[in-house]
Write a structure and sequence with these properties.
about 40% helix
Length: about 100
């Protein structure tokens, strides 16, 4: 369980200071809490990678996988289909 010290910061000097919606909450976690979260996260990601439990197209939490790479891989299926079926020559175009 995490506990944090909450500090309220006024979002803008022009806002009404008596309105709670005018404040932005800033949470300050302890160093131990941040360290523990980092360690658990690394162990969990390592476990998921070792046991192949991440979906193939998930790029978050995985090294060397960027969004643009995933987009390119996902877009190649329709491109191959339209090319193979000859629909490109029929005048049908698809924009990704």
């Amino acid at each position: 369980m995490k506990s944090a010290y909450i500090t309220l910061i006024l979002k803008n000097a022009d806002l009404d200071s008596s309105d709670p919606k005018s404040y932005r909450p800033i949470s300050n976690l302890s160093v131990l809490s941040k360290l523990l979260e980092c360690l658990v996260s690394k162990q969990l990601v390592a476990y998921l990678l070792e046991n192949d439990l991440f979906p193939d197209l998930q790029s978050a939490y995985r090294a060397n996988l960027e969004l643009i790479t995933r987009w390119y891989c996902c877009s190649q299926g329709p491109v191959r289909y339209f090319t193979r079926t000859g629909l490109w020559q029929a005048g049908i175009t698809v924009t990704f």
